[in-house]
Amino acid sequence: MIALEKSRQYLEQLGLVQAAAVLESRLEAAAQKQLPYAEFLADLLGVEAAARRERYLRTRTRLAHLPYYRTLEQFDFRFQPSIDERQVRELATLAFVADAANVIFLGPPGVGKTHLAVALGIRAIEQGYGVYFVRAHDLLEDLRRAQAEHRLDRRMRVYLAPKVLIIDEFGVWPYDRAAATALFALISARYERGSVILTSNKGFAEWGEVLGDAVIATAILDRLLHHSHVLNIRGESYRLRDKKRAGLFTTVPPHPGGLPTEPPKE
User: SMART domains from the xrefs (predicted)?
Assistant: First the structure.
C-alpha cells in the first residue's frame, strides 16, 4: 500500500490527476487480467490522455462562444431534403478550412442553418482549429463602436485570430453604412487568411438593402464568394414542425427561392 500511495502522489505531482484517481482500480483490473506492465501503463496513460482531451475540448468550445452543442450526427437530413448531405459531409472534412474558403448557409428561419454552422465549428475545434461564434448584429455593433472610439484595429484582432469565424443571423436586422464599412474591413482582412461560416435568411441580391450600401455589399460578396461553398436550404422550420403536426400553425407560402422577404428573428 505504501508503494501504491507513493505512485499516486508522484502522478499528482506530475499533473496526471486522472491517472492518479483511477490508479488503484486499474491496478486491480490489470492483476485480474494478468496484463503485461507495458499494457497496464498504456491503459493508465490512455485514461489521462482522454481526460485531458475532454478538458481541452470543453475549454475551446467555451472560448468559441458557441450558443449550444450540436453535431452533424444530431442533424435530421431527412427533414431537410434540399440539403446535399454529401456536400455537408465533405465540408466536415474541413478541407475548406485548410483552403481558407468560406461556407454560407442561406434559408428561412428554423431550417437548421445555425445547427450546421455550430456542428462544423465543433468539428474544427476537435481538429485543433481556433473557432469563434458571434451573432451578426453583435459583431457589427461591436465593430461600429470600436470604429467610433478609434480602436477598430485592436478590436479587429478578436475576429481575425480564429481560423474559423462563424457569423450567425446576418440579415435579420438592417445596418447603417458605418457598420457595413466595418464588416467590409473584417471580411477583407480575413480574405484568403481564414474561413468564415455565415448564416443568412437574405438572398445575395438583398444584401445591399441590409447593409444600406449596394457598393459595399458587392465588395463584401466579391470576397466572400470567391472561395466559398453556398448551401441554400429551402425546407420547413424545425421549431414549427411539431406545431404544424398538431394543427396549431398554418404554413405561409414561401418566398421564391425559399427566402422570406421579411423574416422573423431566427
Answer: AAA
pLDDT category of residue 147 using cuts at 50, 70 and 90: confident
- The DSSP bridge pattern shows strands 102-106 and 195-200 to be parallel
Q: Give strand pairing partners of 207.
A: none
65: left (phi over 0), alpha (psi -120 to 50) or beta: left
Please tell me the distance from the alpha carbon of residue 183 to that of residue 195, in angstroms, as a whole number.
15
Can you tell me the distance from the alpha carbon of 114 to that of 67, in angstroms, rounded to the nearest whole number?
9
Please list, residue by residue across 149-158, b when 16 or more beta carbons sit within 10 angstroms of its beta carbon and e when fewer do: eeebeebbee
* The pLDDT value given to residue 256: 42
Distance, CA of 108 to CA of 200 (rounded, Å): 8
Q: What is the CA radius of gyration of the chain?
A: 24
Domains of the chain, earliest start first: 2-62 (no CATH), 64-258 (3.40.50.300)
Asked if the model's pLDDT at residue 63 lies above 60, the reply is yes
pLDDT for 168-200, tens place per residue?
Answer: 999 999 999 889 999 999 999 999 999 999 999
Q: Is the pLDDT of residue 101 over 80?
A: yes
The answer to whether the beta carbons of residues 167 and 198 sit under 8 Å apart is: yes
Set of cell numbers at residue 231 = 448551401
In degrees rounded to 5, what are phi and psi of residue 200? -150, 145
Of 100, 167, 101, the C-alpha closest to 134 is 167
